[in-house]
Amino acid sequence: MKRLLGITALLGLFFFNHQLNAQGDISGNHETIYQYLLDDEAINAQQPDEKSLVNSYTNINYRYSGFKAGVRIETYLPRILGYPDRFDGAGLGYRYFGYENDIVDITVGNFYDQFGSGLIFRSYEDRALGFDNMMNGFRVKLTPYKGVTLKTIYGKQRYSFTSGKVNYAPGIVRGADLEFNLNQWFPKLAENKIRINAAGSFVSKYQKDDNSEFVLPENTGSYGGRLELAYKKFFINGEYVIKEQDPSQDNGYIYNYGKGLLINAGYSQKGLGILVSAKSIDNMSFRSDRNATLQDVTIGFIPPLTKTHTYNLAATLYPYASQPNGEVAFQADVIYKIKRGTKLGGKYGTDISLNFSTAYEPIKQTSGYNIADSSRVAYDSKLFDKSDLLYWRDINVQIKRKVHKKWTVRLNYFNIHMNNDVLKLTEEKGIIQSHIGVLDVEYKINRKNTIRAEVQGLWTVDNKDRGDWATAIIEYTVSPHWFFSVIFQSNYGNPVPEDRINYPMAFVGRIWGATRLQLGYGRQNAGLFCVGGICRFVPASNGLTVTFSHSF
To answer: Quick check: 81 pLDDT over 80?
Structure first.
């Protein structure tokens, strides 16, 4: 508490000095999430000893004549439900200082950044997941010549925030990324509607060998290159990376090299967009602590090749998390707009979206390899050499049509196959296959008032796992200030009659420009909450949740 009061006093002096000099720009935002939870035996929800839980964040940034500085004050008293137990207390969770102009950008302290798609380096924060692997050290970004960008990073990664203090992982992360934009070198490329970008990255980590059983490499390097080509309406880009020997908790302390390849290609014109992607990953778990698990201190990020669903049943019951130790995945997206005024398009046109994604286990040839050998190279593998073992498959389609100037209708269908032996989302064994249907209707009453309703159903094949589900949602918006919603989720088809539980929730919110307040009350189903292929477990709960945010 003394530390927090001291920080507050310093910030007060900072603001006072700013007002006196009337120089520079100050911006930031504040966010608070408050929960008051109750016991609920039906869903195994327990009231915490503190009863009230709160997460709070305040970001303050200052800019003046090229100089920059900022802090983030974090509060977990205690943390909200589902957050890792390493979030506790109040204090400075983020601080930086730096300078930037047209040539150089220097940051000292905490920072986030990413090389390419993030396969060998991505430092970022996602509060919804309780994820934060920010860097603590320095970053230098140089633009010495037009079309050339060089970034260097050096530091340690955030591991926890306990007793109001940030703790860092033992490993040191070092890296550089050099990118060339050839269009700025050769203006005629742009004149001919050609775009070419090329880049290369190198990242290494240092961690002391503290293992008494194996001789572990203290320095592990990873490196790769990427290329993007585009011509008129077509584009293709790819990134290939290699990770050197990195024995860890994730891979069972084997000495295999890791590798990954990501390819995207697409075409777009008015009324049509096509995107196809392919990914092959093997042994690419890369952390600044070889003994860490789950989502802790990850250096690299495995981009998901799955559609990010927003509808309740498709997004929450059977999500997919990327598999850094190995997966071969593919995705295709097609978006097509049937012209307005045609028989199929109707008066306002019709939008059709098709998506397909799948992931398989890669083939790992173990013949001739013996984990007991001193080399501890466990297998051999090839890019895009997949087995028949399915991890995930998702086929979905959406048809959106404005049938009247006040009515908009969306029809959605999802067919999801999820291998629970691999993903372990529930206690069910084998592949869980589900069909999901959604009817989404929106009615614009007038310029300020809109009402929207959803009806969703999920049916599992052979009544597997927890059987069938349904969700109904009604939202009413009074623009630009008020919004109300009611959500009713039901596991009506559970094979166990006493587990046929309903999960009602209600929300009300108010917006005043840059200020937003929302109150919600009801039951929350237990399960994995996933964003972008990264997941965290959220326990069942019943109670009040209040969120408040403000930007300045």
So the answer is: yes
C-alpha separations of 325 from 224, 381, 389 in Å? 18, 12, 15
**8 A C-beta contact, residue 172 and residue 288:** yes
Work out how many domains the chain is built from and give that number.
1
Cα separations in angstroms, 124 against 103, 134, 261: 24, 6, 22
Q: Per the domain annotation, does 314 fall within a domain?
A: yes
3-state SS assignment for residue 173? strand
HSE-CB of 462 using CA atoms within 13 angstroms: 9
Does any domain span residue 30?
no
Rg (CA), the chain: 26
- The stretch 280-285 carries a mean pLDDT of 96
Q: Contact at 8 Å (CB) between 457 and 472?
A: no
What is the total residue count of the chain? Answer: 552
Domain presence at residue 52: no
Q: Element (H or E) spanning 420, and its range? A: helix 420-423
Contacts of 307 (CB under 8 A, 6+ apart): 331, 333, 355, 357, 394, 396
Contact 127, 134 (CB under 8 A): no
User: What is the domain range of residue 315?
Assistant: 308-552
pLDDT digits (tens, 9 = 90+) for 432-484: 999 999 999 999 999 999 999 999 999 999 999 999 999 999 999 999 999 99
How many Å separate Cα 194 from the centre of its chain? Answer: 32
pLDDT one-digit tens code per residue, 148-161: 999 999 999 999 99
Structure tokens of 429? 């064994």
Tell me the C-alpha distance between 377 and 57, whole Å: 45
Closest CA to 493 of 528, 473, 526, 463: 463
Grade residue 3 by pLDDT with cuts at 50, 70 and 90: very low
Spatial CB neighbours of 519, under 8 Å, sequence gap ≥ 6: 507, 508, 509, 544, 545, 546
- The pLDDT score that the predictor gives to residue 10 is 46
**The tokens of 406 are what?**
């006040």
Examine residue 116 and state whether it is found in any structural domain, yes or no: no
Non-local (6+) Cβ contacts of 14 within 8 A are 62
Confidence of residue 369 (pLDDT cuts 50, 70, 90): confident
Could you tell me the CATH number of the domain that includes residue 428? Answer: 2.40.160
Residue with tokens 């809109």: 450
CA distance 336 to 98: 46
Tokens of 146: 């037009």
Dist CA 188 CA 31 (whole Å): 48
Closest by alpha carbon to 337, among 324, 328, 346, 325?
A: 346
CA end-to-end distance (rounded Å), the chain: 25
Q: Which long-range contacts (CB under 8 A, 24 or more apart) does 254-257 make?
A: 254/283, 254/371, 254/376, 254/377, 254/378, 255/375, 255/376, 255/377, 255/378, 256/282, 256/283, 256/377, 256/378, 256/379, 257/283
d(CA 371, CA 254): 8
Show the CA angle centred on residue 230, arms to residues 227 and 234, nearest 5°. Answer: 125
Q: Average pLDDT over the chain, rounded to whole?
A: 92
Give the pLDDT mean for 69-94.
93
Helix (H, G, I), strand (E, B) or coil at 373: coil
Query: Which amino acid type is present at position 180?
Result: F
Retrieve residue 23's tokens: 């120089």
